[in-house]
Automatic annotation (TrEMBL):
It comes from the Bacteria. This is Acetylornithine deacetylase/Succinyl-diaminopimelate desuccinylase. Keywords: Hydrolase, Metal-binding, Protease. Residues 193-352 form the Peptidase M20 dimerisation domain. The lineage of its organism: Bacteria, Pseudomonadati, Bacteroidota, Sphingobacteriia, Sphingobacteriales. One of its GO terms (biological process) is proteolysis. GO terms for molecular function: metal ion binding; peptidase activity. The keyword tRNA-binding does not apply.
Length: 456
């Protein structure tokens, strides 16, 4: 029997090659033109699960992209771990900003560059390889179920139905997800919360057609200008969100909890330099760690209208648009916040324009326990692999399904993430450290071992 360290060492090249093969599929869920690639990716993942030793492997169709399921039940008396991940990726554009093509994984400086490298192919695939090791070495100490979906990046729209229709099949004692970040390889950490999301699109309509900006400009409201003003009014001078009722349900942390949160290592100068910004910014009265972890936010994700082609066109556009998202914290509710936004934004529209707010997908915030067996098992496993005790942090991103798992399956999640915030998720030149990948594979079997031990 080999130790996981030895196994990783002797299979390293293959583990990388297989991940590269997975990364070569352009499984972009947002764009229907990749539908074929998405399905092929699901089939690839299913095959890899079979090869690693999973039973009942199935590419489950949904109204959208398929969900890959597989399991290994070794003894019904043992605890069951459900591994969740997503094989879909964000669109790769703007393509011209990639140093190497997004779907041709390339190693530079010890990092794998490709769309999906960290989010989430490189991370969920660690579980497939750790599983392979546990099977090959009779080291599996829990039952295991895999559920790898293909619509996380578009709001997991069909996963809710799948979960509801498969509660028996998905029955488990804990859900493990590697789709978040840790502080660094020197300071491992475990995210213990994710923010929720409200996402809307707004449309501002002025005149009933595009107009000559000389003939009509100055006499008719320009929807682009009005949209900019409306958006600017959504924050006050302290960068608080100025939507009435927005903060009503926000759970405030105690001074002790805030102090603990702010103990995490964080270098503001390094942060500014990494992002190329002259100064940081945000809600008054809160630190950067708090602003991205325990406070809700409102961001414009895109804004357009009028002429944006080559050269100049003197036009007063009929319409202007924006995509706006709000990150939510406990105990905010996405439907309620979306409703508040809609009411407010449509309400402040002046008579010279029409404003319409269209809600998109949402997701609820979650906090995961730090006093559970699963958290303790994760803590021990990370400490063993990184020689340092991991610290709890709050994640700024969202994985809406976590709250849904809790609601539908009554099972809590451990966020065993190995990415870094600087991995360029959703950006050009997404990357994942080879060391993060291999260390992740090394950590996972210990998690299973400790989870089984502590569950006794
Ligand atoms: N893996 C991310 C979420 C994430 C990233 C959590 C980093 C914590 C740290 C996930 O794939 C993601 O991008 N989720 C979306 C939400 C979804 C509804 C589109 C997000 O956070 O924007
Ligand atoms: Mn992800
Ligand atoms: Mn993502």
């Amino acid at each position: 029997m080999q130790t996981i360290k030895e196994y990783v060492q002797s299979n390293k090249d293959r583990f990388l090659e297989e991940l590269f093969a997975l990364l070569r599929f352009p499984s972009v869920s947002a764009d229907p033109k990749y539908k074929n690639d998405v399905v092929k990716t699901a089939e690839f993942v299913a095959q890899k699960l079979k090869d690693a030793g999973a039973d009942k492997v199935e590419v489950c169709p949904t109204a959208g992209n398929p969900i890959v399921y597989g399991e290994k039940i070794i003894d019904p008396a043992l605890p069951t771990v459900l591994v969740y991940g997503h094989y879909d990726v964000q669109p790769a554009d703007p393509l011209e900003l990639w140093e190497t093509p997004p779907f041709e994984p390339t190693v530079r400086d010890g990092k794998i560059y490709a769309r999906g490298a960290a989010d989430d192919k490189g991370q969920f695939y660690m579980h497939v390889k750790a599983f392979e090791y546990m099977i090959a070495n009779q080291a599996l100490s829990c039952n295991i179920k895999f559920m790898i979906e293909g619509e996380e990046e578009v709001g997991s729209v069909n996963l809710g139905t799948f979960v509801k229709e498969n509660t028996e099949r998905l029955k488990s004692d804990v859900i493990v997800i590697s789709d978040t970040s840790m502080i660094s390889l020197e300071q491992p950490s475990i995210e213990t919360g994710l923010r929720g999301l409200s996402y809307v699109e707004v449309e501002v309509t002025g005149p009933n057609r595009d107009l000559h900006s000389g003939v009509y400009g100055g006499a008719v409201a320009n929807p682009a200008t009005i949209l900019a003003k409306l958006i600017a009014s959504l924050h006050d001078e302290n960068n608080h969100i100025a939507i009435p009722g927005f903060y009503d349900d926000v759970l405030e942390l105690s001074p002790a909890e805030r102090e603990a949160l702010n103990k995490a290592p964080f270098d503001i100068e390094e942060y500014k330099q990494d992002l190329g910004v002259g100064d940081i910014f945000g809600e008054k009265g809160f630190t950067t760690i708090e602003r991205t972890g325990i406070r809700p936010t409102l961001e414009v994700n895109g804004i357009w209208g009028g002429y944006i082609g080559e050269g100049a066109k003197t036009v007063l556009p009929s319409k202007a648009f924006a995509k706006i998202s709000m990150r939510l914290v406990p105990n905010q509710n996405s439907e309620r916040v979306t409703e508040l936004f809609k009411k407010h934004f449509e309400g402040i529209a002046p008579a010279y324009v029409k404003v319409e707010v269209k809600p998109h997908h949402g997701g609820e915030p979650v906090v995961t326990p730090t006093d559970s067996i699963a958290y303790k098992a994760a803590e021990k496993a990370l400490e063993e692999a990184f020689n340092k005790k991991p610290i709890p942090t709050r994640g700024g991103g969202s994985i809406p399904i976590v709250a849904l798992f809790e609601k539908e399956l009554n099972v809590k999640t451990v966020l065993l993430g190995f990415g870094l915030d600087s991995d360029n998720l959703h950006s050009p030149n997404e990357k994942y450290g080879i060391e993060n990948y291999l260390k992740g594979i090394e950590t996972i079997p210990s998690f299973f071992k400790y989870f089984a031990e502590l569950s006794k």
